[in-house]
Structures are given as structure tokens and as C-alpha cells.
Amino acid sequence: MADGRSSFWGPVTSTTEWCEKNYVYSSYVAEFFNTVSNIPTILLAFIGLFSAVRQRFEKRFSVLHISNIILGFGSMIYHATLQHVQQQTDETPMVWEMLLYLYILYSPDWHYQSTMPTFIFIYGVIFAAAHAIFRFGIGFKLHYVFLCLLCIPRMYKYYIYTEDIHAKRLAKWYAATLFCATSCWLCDRFLCKELSLLPFNPQGHALWHVLMGFNSYFANTFLMYCRAEQRDWAPKVVYFIGVLPYVKIEKPKTK
Q: Which residue positions form the known binding site?
């Protein structure tokens, strides 16, 4: 939806644009709301990273939170520039993040511990190279949805085996934010003409960013609880200032 305003970054080269007018507030930021809406994702990921490091969770969770931070910054760069090269800084980390979720979800039952991370690493590298060369469009979206669908049954299994009501609530928040975020994404992508007739733009893609930031945080926190329960670390869900949930653990003392 370019509107003819001057652009510091030059003509749009990304394969996808969203239902937000370009360069309304600054010649340096193509889609203002789609850019700043990534801030909650980054802040929540830093909070999760601090909790994981401070309580000495397994490194996989630190890497997961860091991947959320990278994704947030990558998305900001993409929406600020709408350049194809910068689009890769958004889409490639999305796939890498889903590969991390697959590892965390399925690795406890994987009998060959070294093969799964090796395969995921090689797969992620090959995808990054292929996506940069061939510029997947609809193929990227279908691939991402497929990876998400692989995670959902496992998340549901963890949910039904979790007895703590506060942990189960995290899973419910994960499902609710995923549903709402997906609805916002679909409306922004396919109902742009209708939305443009409204007195104001509801900024569906920006809402997707905000909701997915909370979605990732709830998913990460729930998985940290489940993993701590597997390790007999006596996890419990507590709330920072009575609002933001996080997992508190008590590791057994080593003799």
C-alpha cells in the first residue's frame, strides 16, 4: 500500500505488503505500527531469558528466548524497510523458532539424543539458504503452518497430562492468543479493501505481532513448567506483580 511518500530505503522489494500505509510517520519507517508492535515480543522474551538463566534452566530455553528476541528485531527491520533482504530476517527466524519448539516438545521421548539436534540444525541451515535463493512466497507460509501444526498435538498432550491448574491456564492462554492472533492476521491479509473503508485502520498485522509476543511467552513458560516437572524440580507458576506468570523451581540439593 505505497502512497507515494519519500522513502529512505527506496522502492519496495519485499514479496508481501500489509494493510498499513507506507511512510506515514517517517521516511525511515515503512510500516510504523507493524514495526513498533514487535516491542512486546522482545521485552517478554528478555523477561523469559532472565528467568531461565537466573534459575539455571537447560540451555535450550535460553536459546528459545533468544530466538524470540532475534525474531522480534528481525520483524522490526523487515517492516521498517520492506526490502526483500530484510524480509529474510523476519521469515527465516520464524522457521528456526518452530524447529526449536519441535526439539523441545519431542526430544524427551527421542531415543537417539544426538541425531535430533543435528538434523534440526542442518535442516535450518538448508532452509535459510534455499529461502534466500528461491524467495519462497506461499511455500514459506505453508511450510510455517505445517511446522506449527506439528507442535500443536504435542502441546495438547502436555496439557492433558498437566494437573496444576495454573500451568493448564498457561496452555489455555497460549491457545487463545494463537486463535486471536491468527484471526487478526487473516483479516489484515485478505480483508484489506473492506478494512480501508473504516474510519480507522484496526492494524490487524500489528495486533498479530503483539498477540504472538504473548503467545510465545505463554508457550515458553508452559514448556518450562513441563520440563521442570519431568526433571523433578518442583515447579510452580507464580506471578510477577500479580500479573505476569513465570515458573519458579526448586532443584533437589546435590549431596
A: 18, 20, 22, 31, 79, 205, 209
Q: Largest Cα–Cα distance of the chain, in whole Å?
A: 69
User: pLDDT truncated to tens, each residue of the chain (255 aa)?
Assistant: 445 456 899 999 998 889 999 999 999 999 999 999 999 999 999 999 999 999 999 999 999 999 999 999 999 999 999 998 999 999 999 999 999 999 999 988 876 677 888 999 999 999 999 998 888 888 899 999 999 999 999 999 999 999 999 999 999 999 999 999 999 999 999 999 999 899 999 999 999 999 999 999 999 999 999 999 999 999 999 999 889 999 999 988 765
Phi and psi at residue 30, to the nearest 5°: -70, -55
In sequence order, the 6+-apart residues with CB closer than 8 A to the CB of 172 are none
The domains of the chain are located at: 32-249
Calpha distance 130→153 (Å, rounded): 28
Of the candidate CATH numbers 3.40.50.300, 3.10.20.580, 1.20.1070.10, 1.10.10.650, the domain formed by 32-249 belongs to 1.20.1070.10
Q: Would you list which residues are annotated within the binding site for Ca(2+)?
A: 18, 20, 22, 31
Instruction: Please report, in range form, the residues annotated as the binding site for Zn(2+).
Output: 79, 205, 209
CB neighbours (10 Å) of residue 64?
25
